[in-house]
Amino acid sequence: MTDKNSLQNVFVEKKAKQNYVREMFDAIAYRYDFLNHLLSFGLDFYWRWFAIRKLDLKGGEKIIDTACGTGDFSIMASKRNPSMIFGVDVSLNMLKIFRQKAMKKGIKKIHLVCASAENLPFKSEVFDVCLVAFGVRNFSDLETGLREIHRVLKNGGKIAVLEFSMPKQPFKLFYLFYFRRILPFIGKLFSKHENAYTYLPESVLRFPEGEEFAKILNNCGFKRIEIHRLTFGIVTLYIGVKN
Ligand SMILES: C[S@@+](CC[C@H](N)C(=O)[O-])C[C@H]1O[C@@H](n2cnc3c(N)ncnc32)[C@H](O)[C@@H]1O
């Protein structure tokens, strides 16, 4: 991507960003779910539910959950009776928690792969649906990741991206206070990680949103892009179709 505020201008090289992000998620993995639900007031369940409803899954789909983390998106999608789900993430510790949760729930059709979105170890045109929740912002190379997802999707396959965005005034003022002051404080308190929850607002504030992100999806080959702003615009769902 070309945005001059992009994190890609902050990290010396793409590999450095990937290592930084992987180490950060490896370190906070054991606290990730707890903090995710606490800091979003449980709204993260609603955002994933909304995305899955909009995808209108009929059953039998082959799904890839890129940057799957601890797997909440895949676990929710598994209730729609897909034929298989592949969860892909760079953080082994996040995948370990995902595996424990899937085993506990007795979900057998989920396969986990430790790999990066920018270099997916799959053949072209094999998946019907790609899910990415709160992951694209962390890609070391956004366009490479999106083009890889495009490659592994079948023609007519769909991508659903959930990502944080900025609400409009007057809510924006309260939200920025929460996001810059309260969230990093609570995040650090519970995760004991120095930077993870300051990285979150910083990376969100720098990331392209709305029409700007839709344009990037379009450049990477996705068409008929839908933009749904959720919960006063603090999260946006993007759905795009391959061809
Ligand atoms: C904020 S978490 C989101 C996890 C999950 N999708 C959710 O909704 O809770 C971001 C995840 O993206 C993963 N990640 C970051 N960059 C990645 C990349 N380039 N390829 C694959 N996974 C990546 C991280 O390891 C982390 O697990």
TrEMBL record:
GO BP terms: namely: menaquinone biosynthetic process; methylation
- Keyword list, A-Z: Menaquinone biosynthesis, Methyltransferase, S-adenosyl-L-methionine, Transferase
The catalysed reaction is:
a 2-demethylmenaquinol + S-adenosyl-L-methionine = a menaquinol + S-adenosyl-L-homocysteine + H(+)
The record's listing under Pfam families reads: Ubie_methyltran
Provide the E.C. number(s) assigned to this enzyme. Answer: 2.1.1.163
What are the binding positions for S-adenosyl-L-methionine in this chain? 70, 89
Hey, which pathway is this one from?
Quinol/quinone metabolism; menaquinone biosynthesis; menaquinol from 1,4-dihydroxy-2-naphthoate: step 2/2
Q: Which GO terms describe its molecular function?
A: demethylmenaquinone methyltransferase activity
Q: InterPro entries in the record, alphabetically? A: SAM-dependent_MTases_sf (IPR029063), UbiE/COQ5_MeTrFase (IPR004033), UbiE/COQ5_MeTrFase_CS (IPR023576)
Role according to the record = Methyltransferase required for the conversion of demethylmenaquinol (DMKH2) to menaquinol (MKH2).
What is the name of the protein in this document?
Answer: Demethylmenaquinone methyltransferase
Task: Report the source organism.
Answer: Candidatus Thermokryptus mobilis
UniProt lists the gene as menG
